[in-house]
Amino acid sequence: MIPEIFELAGRLPVRRLGYGTAQLTGPGYWGPRGGARDAVAVLRRAVERGVTLIDTADNYGPSIAEELVAEALYPYPAGLVIATKGGVVRTGPDAWHIEGRPERLRAMCEASLRRLRLDTIDLYQLHRLDPDVPMAEQLGALDELRREGKIRHIGLDSVTAEQLYAALELTDIASVQNRYNLTDRASEPLLKLCEAHGIAFLPWFPLGNGSLTTDRVCADIAAAHGVSPGRIALTWLLHRSPVLCPTPGTGSLAHLEENLDSAAVRLGEKDMSRLDALS
Fold it and tell me: CA 20 to 30 Å from 49, out of 27, 160, 170, 255?
């Protein structure tokens, strides 16, 4: 039986298949994508379908994705976990730089609180480690925000297993986000470390930025199950490890329904062997 629920930090339960908001913004994560009404409809439908983990970031838009989350879902229903990120500043489409100075991380977090209309952010993730600022200072700033009650749990984005080891020496880490999917498993050592420590792994580009929806093996297995190739790619993640919590994003209601239906697919040993061999 595939576990449907993961407990962040051992105490905050979420359904493993969540929803990510990056696709609610325009190309290069800049500006809006379509009308706000469509985005609001997708967010509300995700929650109606049982999603309890919404993953966003302050630089999606920038600010737009967080504002849409609040517009669509505030007041938030009980049990809904909002995760956001700080530490990256966008200056144009696909143009960004890392900012990990403690005073900037505090300002970013407090701005996210205002946009999301929250007193406490359930999961605040450092979008990138700043190579010019000691890790202890960056995580120390987040620890301070946690002690003040402004964030509940800390996560990291795009780290190595070695960096996660170092971070765990400094503070508790509830989640990581790295690129991981059927054909990109460079973060396998990180996944194993997450399993050992009970840390959630939120894989980004779970559909290979769309490439896995046309993969022949996925298509063959999908045809046998009567589903789409994209659903097979997401289902594989749910089967692969109990700590994997994909948050696929889309601005389409139809694609949302398709993605969320992935949790109902059950892959056999032969299916998994064929898919595992794709790496």
Answer: 27
